[in-house]
Amino acid sequence: MTSKRTVVVAVAVAVGVVASVLSYVFLNNAQNNAYHNAKLVNAYVIAKPIPRTLSGVDAANGGYLQEKKVRPSSGPPPPSRVCLRSATRRPTPTCPWARSS
Length: 101
What we know:
Layout: H1 3-34, E1 41-46, H2 56-61, E2 65-70
Antiparallel strand pairs: 1-2
């Protein structure tokens, strides 16, 4: 290679390294801002499919659940926001403000 080609290749490599570093810094800051620097919390997640007939105690002891650190926003809504109704359409204990119909 001639010296001119060597300089062009070196400049191209340097620009690529600078671009990758700047991209990493920008995307890392964007992700931190999106999560508002949230701290990870412990949560139980399903490790493998749970059979329908398995009890909760057996699922917990059988390795079907594992504790994992997750961001608070990636889980379900807090219980105060969950309002489930039964087949009889009566309010559940977690939803006392719901009107029965």
